[in-house]
Amino acid sequence: MLIAPNSTRFLDELENAEHCVVFLSLDALRRSLADAGPRLLSKPVVILSDGHSLANDYLVEAVRLHWRFGGKYVLSRVRCEYEAKSGKLQLGHPAHAELQRIATLGGSMVMPLEEALACKDEEHLFVPTIGFAVCIPQHPLTETELEELERACTPSSDDAKELERLAKMGSLGHQHILKLQPQSRWPIANEVERRLQDFDCLLRDLSLRAAELTVEVATKTLRSFDDYQDDLLFRFELADSFLSALSLRGDILLVLNEAMLQKYFDLCRRCSEADSIASNLVVVASKLCQREPGVIPPLFQFLAAHLSPVALNSTFAFCAGELPVSEEHFLALADSMRSFADDTIMALLLTSLIRIKPAWLMKSKVLKRFNRLLSSNQRHVVEAQFGQEILDKIEVSANITDRFRAAVLELDKARALSIIADEAEFTKVDVRKWMDSLRALSNELRELGVRVSDLDGLGLDAANRQLAAIIFSDATAAEQLRVSGLLDDHDAMNAVALNLSGNGEMLDSIIAEKCAASTITPLKIRGNSTLDVFSNACSTATELPQIDGPLVSVIMSAFNPDMSLMEAALSSVSNQTWRNVEIFVVDDASDVDKANQIARLVAKFNQAELIRLSTNAGPYVGRNLALRRAQGEYIAIQDADDWSHPQRFAAQIEYLSRNPAAQVVASEHIRINGAGLVALEGQFEVFGDGPMTSMFRVEVFRDVGDFAAVCSRGDIEMRDRIMAYYGYQAVAHLPLPLVLCFAGSQTLSHRALAEKGPHVRLFRANMARRPDLNSLRRDGVPLRLSHQVQIPVGLRPATTRLA
User: Fold this and answer.
1) Global pTM value
2) How far is the CA of 602 from the CAs of 154, 466, 568, 605, 609, in angstroms?
3) Fewer beta carbons within 10 angstroms: which end of the chain, N or C?
4) CB-based contact 723:88 (threshold 8 Å)
């Protein structure tokens, strides 16, 4: 039997086609053979994909392979991997016959009639009824055909139902292979036995004690982690034990090849024993620094994440005293120290360099590694020992945009203007990247009073002048652009520029367009301060109908907040059209005076309950305490300096009710700076989609656990964890501006990035390394702490208790 969708033009060119029954679709085959008896169900159904080039013997070979594998399996010409976390599909060619969970209809070569009858035309991807397909290397697709098939099979990011179906499939794990009945295994016995033996061997190697490990065993085991990643989710104790044992064998680590050593550090960053492993590695750190330069960054990224500051700086000090063998080694070590060491260690490194390799100090790329010393308490020490000349050289090497940013933060207008005046140096600057680095400083730039006209010598084009006008809050420059007709086009950036001088009509129109297809009353951005804008936004959404429904638990964290903004924030969640609301305000150990003000404010709201912590721990520890008390079916997050649209909760609940695959939904937000002006998001977007607008189903926390105990980025980690466990479709986004956020350099996220930026980046990198966890969900296994991303020491909160 043949299925030749859309065309029969292949048939004249294929051997033995005249002996086949041809169907133009699966539906046609089902209509004809729905009542087929047992003798027919194992007969081969060959798939002819439209547009694929086929050899003359394709039919003969397909039938031969079908019976060679016992007439039981879907035989696929492509290897298929679906990453639930990202919602992305990857197709490739197998090197040998192998088993896989998912098959593609267009990539299948042949299958028994029983499987063909079970297939659905609309499902490009499917799990065969037997639980797996056999991927074969014969008759591979061309690269072009493979790319076209991948595009055709990849589900739309908006197709939540299909993404949910695929996420629930999981991967083909060891437990599934063990469940195969012997009689169903014999045609694929070699592949099954290989998989079973390899996994059993891996388990034995993972169980070895440190003294029993060898270089060969360590290398083989590290290579196996990728092949059995999903299986090891269920055996994480063994995997962690192996990584810990290997950390005791410095002799092995010192001779592993570079790729395996980098892989080892990568795996350790996911390990529940990471802190103890880091302690074990301290004794070989200096010797590892003499290895390839590529070993140094992952080594110290791992150590920085899991050693105490004292232990880390001691390790750096030891390495600084023994300069690496080459300049490339030195630069790698200096970069790690610049990110994670304290200023004293940087001064020690400079001292070693002056003593041992003074010639390297002639190079700008070396000097700029020491820029931090210019604004540190070690500057005077360096000057006393080595003179002003070395500091001057370091200052000249500094990036000019970094120098400008430092001047802005210090509100030193004269220095900022003198830096801009260096036109020759600024011609090398990417203006958009420079402006992006200044986005969070809109309040400081406005206070400093730097104007776009001060940049005239830089030769900015109209687009960059517009961008600078917005970033610098320069209404005069924006007005000049308007008069020149450069802000006439109806787009968000022009609207923000016009808003600088109080013209909000275009911005109003764009917000209204976003809300047009919904029942949301559009906001209007009006006011000369953040509080003005919040207050005026309230007046644009009055007299809305009230809605009854399940309880929403709102969690708001506060630490020494602006009390006026906090009152606006509390009012916005207590005055929702969704009436059934309870509010938990977590005071994260604010100062005594602020704590008393918070208590008085919370007492004004009948739905609100105050939770006070004794030690400042960041918002997520407090959120977890509030979760213990929450009774709602939905959990909404609200920051103490943000304002929520009265219809926010109703819109989010309505979305979750219509989309059962979604576990959390966020909305768009608009950032408002201290002058009541719109501040831009990353990529210079006006509307952001940050997690501070999230609403969760309460069941999520039962499946994936609490928020990570982290000082910053816990919202992002939770969103990433949900996608890893449920799939990409579980995190939804409403394209409606339902939250106004205060934009300032002293908000929690910006403070964390400024003070602990390298540790924040480590945490983000750990999230990116997290594997799919959807196989755990498929098998009904909730997440454990050992499945969660490891938190760098620098982002761990202080232990706390209720005050």
Assistant:
1) 0.90
2) 49, 42, 12, 6, 7
3) C
4) no
